[in-house]
């Protein structure tokens, strides 16, 4: 006489819950987190004066956010590459003396850096500035405690920033320059632009920014939308611009 198949009286264990996706937000430094324009201009003026080139602070403004060598080559056209490298080395040596103390954090910068942690994530800083000076600027501006030292990277621009952001798992990158938009694209992150630098909202939109904010005060509210997108399985849907 056959018997009914045995049944397993032990209920199947419930599937482990999928942890929520945490935001990892990269931030540019100069003209995004901090207004460093006066110190950069003062150092450029001093370095170029030593080389016999006269520039004004206004001359330096359009170069905000660019790599130092490109700035120096633009302000002193015709300078041989080797001389540009020497000027850049001199700039990096003078900047801690002439440039750092005038740096000020933008309104909302500390809150913006702290915002990802409230959603289980973290902030990282990826900048074109020379790495030791990035740390100096963060300290002087009162922002050093808002980001881990290991999450601070310098000496990178545009696509090279994007490679580092991808390594850090960035889901968004905040910057003021078209090069920052390109960085976000390389990283597969949402490109968030702020208009605190040399480029206005139309220029940043034309560069391909997904989101344009007037300043970092608007960032925590946008981040809430970004986190909701991440938890729906989307990398990030831009909010209306």
From TrEMBL:
InterPro entries for the chain: HAD-like_hydrolase_sf, HAD-like_sf, HAD_sf, PGP-like_dom2
The entry's keywords: Hydrolase
Keyword Hydrolase: yes
Single biological process term from Gene Ontology: DNA repair
Pfam family, one: HAD
Entry EC no(s): 3.1.3.18
Cellular component terms per the entry's GO annotation: cytosol
GO molecular function, one term: phosphoglycolate phosphatase activity
Enzyme class: hydrolase
Protein name per its UniProtKB record: Phosphoglycolate phosphatase
Protein species of origin: Kineococcus radiotolerans
């Amino acid at each position: 006489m056959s018997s009914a198949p045995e049944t397993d009286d032990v209920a199947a264990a419930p599937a482990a819950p999928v942890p929520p996706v945490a935001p990892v937000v990269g931030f540019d430094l100069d003209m995004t987190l901090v207004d460093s324009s006066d110190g950069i201009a003062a150092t450029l003026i001093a370095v170029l004066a030593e080389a016999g080139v006269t520039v004004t602070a206004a001359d330096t403004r359009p170069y905000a956010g660019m790599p130092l060598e490109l700035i120096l080559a633009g302000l002193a056209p015709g300078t041989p590459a080797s001389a540009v490298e020497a000027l850049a080395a001199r700039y990096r040596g003078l900047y801690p003396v002439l440039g750092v103390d005038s740096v000020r954090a933008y309104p909302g910068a500390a809150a913006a850096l702290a915002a990802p942690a409230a959603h289980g994530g973290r902030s990282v800083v990826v900048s074109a500035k020379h790495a030791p000076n990035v740390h100096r600027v963060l300290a002087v501006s009162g922002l050093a405690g808002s980001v881990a030292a290991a999450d601070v990277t310098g000496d990178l621009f545009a696509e090279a920033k994007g490679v580092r952001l991808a390594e850090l798992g960035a889901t968004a990158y905040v910057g003021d320059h078209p090069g920052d938009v390109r960085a976000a694209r390389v990283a597969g992150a949402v490109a968030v632009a702020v208009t605190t630098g040399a480029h206005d909202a139309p220029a940043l939109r034309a560069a391909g920014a997904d989101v344009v904010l007037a300043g970092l005060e608007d960032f925590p509210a946008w981040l809430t939308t970004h986190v909701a997108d991440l938890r729906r399985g989307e990398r990030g849907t831009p909010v209306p611009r």
